[in-house]
Request: fold
Amino acid sequence: MMSEALFTDFRFPYETHQLRGIYEENTFRLGPVISIVTEVREDEELFGSISVFCKEFVQACKELGCFCYVSKLSDVKSLSPKGYVYRADRWVYSEVPFPGIVHNRIHARKTEQTADFQTFKTFLKEHDVPFFNARYLNKWTVFQQLKDVVYLLPYLPKTYQLRSRQDLLDALELHDDVFLKPVHGSQGKNIFKISKKEKYILDYTTFTQTYEKEYESLYDLFETLYSQLKRQGFLIQEGISLQTYKQCPFDFRILCHKKDDLTWKITSIVTRVSKPGNFVSNLARGGDIHPPQQVLTQLYDSKTTRHILSLLKEIAIEICTQLSHPSELYAEFGIDLAIDQEGKPWIIEVNVKPSKQSDSSAFSVRPSTKALLDYCLHATNFQFPKEDLR
Reply:
């Protein structure tokens, strides 16, 4: 039983805690202490789209003898940080222990480019604090890293940088359909499909509907998009004739988590089916989730279904392995794969900060949350032998 004074010394809130303790080299450590760093809003959804996940992660920590709090970028800038602790069904801003590991869930890519963020990373590094999923990976960076991997190359759509109208013209000489995707985009936003037929056809999707417009020339089409294209970098990707379920294209979101320093594991797979008439399946664009077996067994026999799922898993694990880098720690990836009309897999996108809403459950801690906590225990040396949270 710890006294209130000892709680204060450790900067833990004075309440009942189940914590892990390790005594080594004449030092007693309590923990692990995990910080989730993100933006903080002044409304009911304090942490935006990850508010439910934060509560879920804190609950899992309490059950398994860990301590977790949520912090702003400016909160963890000294050895005496502050953060948000979940107590009595609400978030309380208070003094907290110095973290043993930090999970980056900052939403805004621009924030990661600021001097404050770089100072924050340097501060954690100086104090040997693991900081995982430390930055977004843009689509061009991912393509460049994967294109030299012999095993993955057959599954990569041809991809080009969009620097001028000529780049688009060259791509359409090679492919009847192409997609224009923001290099730094997410959630299926600002994706344009261009088809070359008798005329040039432009498709694009908003939150509410899909638009299609014909153009006599590529010059006219490009002029229409130019104001948007010049605001951010875009790349060109060859169009893939995706397999459909009930006449709607679909893909697979595969959540992968690092099990230890070298090994990755698959935590969940879901099939995302687009809305009728849409060419993107993101949930933010109205897509629906289905179990992969439910969809695939409507299209293939059981042997082919097993083969496709096995191959998708192999590709996802290889992507995670190739994107792991000694100088930057990643512990979670959301891999988006699809299959074409012949059943061949294709790599669509890699997400460093996958949505925490797609596989939500109101009744239990999700496997993806347990997998993240499992890795935090491993990275902070608080995981006991043969312990694996499931």
Notes: The mean pLDDT is 87. The chain has three domains: 4-135, 139-154+242-352, 158-238. The radius of gyration is 23 Å. The longest helix spans residues 302-323.
